Amino acid sequence: MSDGRTHTIRAPRLSLVMLVLFVCLSIPILIFILVYNYQRNAGAMVSTLDEAVASTSQVSIESAENFIRPVGESLRLLAGFAGADPNYFRTEASAELLYRALTSAEQIDAAYVSFEDGYHRVVTRMDEDRRRSDPKIPATANWHSSYIDDFSAGPNRARHRTFFDTWGHVVGGYSVPSTLDIRVLQGYAETKASRDLAVTEPSINPDTGYPILSIRYPILRNDEFIGAASVNITMDVLSRFLANHRASAHSTGLIADQTNGKIIASAVREQSVQPIDGKLTIATLDNVGDPNVRAAARIRRETGRGHFLFNSPMNGDEVSASFVKFPDSFGKPWQTIILTPTNDFIGDLKIANRKSVLVIIGLIAVELLLIYALSRRLSRPIEDISHELESVEALAFEASPIRASNIKEIAHLQSAAALLRNSLRSFSSFVPLDIVRELIKSKTPLTLGVEQRYLTVFFSDLENFSSHAERLAPNDLLTQLSVYFEQVSGAISQEHGTVDKFIGDGVMAFWGAPVPRADHVLRGCTGALRAARRMERINQRWEAEGRPKFRIRIGLHCANVLVGNVGSSERLNYTVMGDGVNVAARLEAANKTFGTTICISDSVVEAAGPDLVVRPLRKTRVKGREHEFMIYELLGLSGSNDPEIAVRGEDAKLSVMTRSASDSFERGDFTEASRLYRVILQGFPHDPVARSMLVACSSSGTLKTTTEAGSS
Known about the structure:
By secondary structure, the protein is of the alpha+beta class.
């Protein structure tokens, strides 16, 4: 057959060309406009972000300064009063002065004076955390005043505690021995040495479990250091300030020490402490629970930059990081850290940009439709050819007449379409049409004739189909039969086999033609296993539905057969013929004798090699053939995890046991063979092969005995 398609012009349709030109010319321009506007707007938003971060950092620094400096002034007054009259603080009346110092600022958690001789007086706030820390504390206590005897009390030195619900109204109290030496507390020695205000590093308040700062001021009398006035500042107030003054909705603010990374205050209160070895400690930038803070601290340490962008390790979003140092006049090496997701500022812009993209895509779609409509009007001269080709593609050959064109390119298209239609009309004589399509792909000549080729041939039918046909209603029979054909055909097609024909309840198929395949034997075995096991699942479903089961029997053989176009000039059939086909049919029938599902020949076993797990049945001779050959039952494919083709249960063991029994049978040792088949039945009581072979051993043994007796 000459290839008339060689003159077909391989050019795109006019409508497609116009669409592509429009896309190439317009879409890049639209993308450029979108990107340009986005970058400009994003730049403006980022500038706004930087301004907001800078403002937040400045406010945080001012807040921290205002947080500590007024407390320092109160301490100076308290220390001056204690220096002028130290004995006053050894009286209960001095608690009023400490109470006023305590309530002068909400961040002050405790106010106290401590003297070199060990005397110590303090007034503190009481909250739920403190009340839970000591069961002796009254549940209604909101204030607490206590003093510790000086060192002269010796072993009788104690801490005397008094609790108030409202200041001045006592609700309880107790005394407890004390060995506390306030002089060893953090900051005391520093203020003694400097004779000036000392601010300690943050530490954990043992009563509340939250960070505090201690601020101490020396008490001097006649220029001699006699003690220190102190307050404890809870960082919770500063943390709340950071939480309420964010650069954006999802921004995080912290204040940390530059030298050791300890967190002074955090917008997330719980992040300021970190449990280590079961003990609460002040969190640092390197062990804080927020991965974004840890990542920003690492980048800051590696690059030294105070402002940068990085991708969040949690979700990959872009985050702006700002590190701002407190002024030197503050006296502590603190810094503010502001982490702000850029999406808080440009997220709406991104959403608007995406909406713009969707709108533009919609407009482009409308324009494409308009251009397509215009291109169709321009391409009407070739619409008839297009419709003709569509009908040919569907293997429908009732073509409507078309007028010959004077345009060279269109005339070539008409000629090619006519040649293709006439060629496929010849192929339509083949049944089924999927074979026709395969033959078209393989370029097999459309003439009567066959060729010899080594193929794998498949036969299947249903056990007791005649009985099913008598019992079942026609529609029910057709329904189940259709499912059977669909399952078997699907398994064959999945393994690239060709379904030749349906013969009553049987299916004939083959592998290796029309398209040659090097692995056609293995694919044939795989297809047979899939067909058998899919029917097993279908039968389980039918049994649950109360329908009769269709037991399939399959025969598989590979041999040199004749394949090609047979029939007449009016009707062709692409099929296989020869002795190999007859053997495959006999193998399918052999299943009835042995009670098996898939019988294959020794040629299949030899061709597929170790990929197959089989069990030998017995040698047989097909009518018309001179030589015997061994029949095997196919059990599965070795090494496969696919449940449709894998070896199941103890089939591998059964294969080995059957091989030993079969060897004895084929040697003529029927006594040993019978024994071995009985051993199989002990382990596999329902094995039909062992039962049938025991009958064969018995009949063969009787025949042998009779023959020997007659000879004697």
